[in-house]
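Q: Can I see a sequence and its folded structure?
A: Here is a first one.
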Amino acid sequence: MFNIVLVNPQIHTNTGSIGRMCVNSGCKLHIIKPLGFEIDDKHLRRAGLDYWAKLDPKIWDSLEQFLSINTKFKDRFFFATTKTNQLYFNAKFQKGDFIFFGSETSGLPLDLMRLNKENRITIPMTNDGRSLNLATSVGIVTYEAIRQNIDEFDFRDEICEF
């Protein structure tokens, strides 16, 4: 559905939760090193529960390596950041887009966001907080992108009836 790109994630439980969400939303997870944890960390797998085996994340050694392969898609790069006023729900997402999220401690590199600064997006927040949890932010933006492309989303077959 979409490509979720985590640039230098620092907290294993966030990455595990995002991996679980990617499996359930049909998204491809790209994880760009360096990381703040070991990729085989038992806590990472625990946060992703039994979903981690279904995830098949693409692990990149560096941002440069990722960009050397994927820069041709830069028109479809979206950058989640607090450094813009463009709200995420005003972006026009398409199947296959790359949605970037930075590390919990420093966000996305400014040089990266310059590749397509028109596609910087933010989640509205009050002045009382600095930022949202990374896994929460990824979920909010991803499901808005799915909402915009719902006709292409592959729902599960069984439906719960009450």
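Q: Show me another, different protein.
A: A second, unrelated one:
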Amino acid sequence: MDLKDRISLHFDDAATSLQHSTQQLQEPLAQATHILVDTINQGNKVLACGNGGSAADAQHFIAELVGRFERDRIPLAGVALNTDTSILTAVGNDYSFDVVFERQVQALGMPGDLLVAITTSGNSANVLKAIHAAHDRGMRVIALSGKKGGALNDILLPDDVHLCVPHDRTMRIQEIHILLLHILCDGLDAFLLGDF
């Protein structure tokens, strides 16, 4: 196999992943969009968290809310819990890295707020603890995962939404995650700006 063949395999795999995701995630993605819209319309905020590439996705998503997506609109309340290095290092040092998101949800989360929790494996301990904290605070959860969902499957509540990408490779899962987040942003703007 030469380099061009290897590149083609990635495009083919990504296209297959997109097709399977469309078939499996369209309905839960619509549900997640309604939850996001309801959160914003009720004057609540969105908290988001993840590790590594998922941290970048959480930060990107919140930037689209506070700034804008494709069209001008009012800024929307959101906080990426993985961006404050002083909080992350203080909590990680004084307690444990497993609770760096949980403590922030406990401090910032209010009933009616929304947690967007991103973990490609579904098993990230600090993300799982953040979800438990969100439930304790009366928050709903939109969880993004892959690899069959991992431990997320056992802790999400009926009012939560699980967007589990049907793939086992982290790179494919992350590629679909950013698409899902962009679809959420587009759906939110469509409702807020009167497209529906």
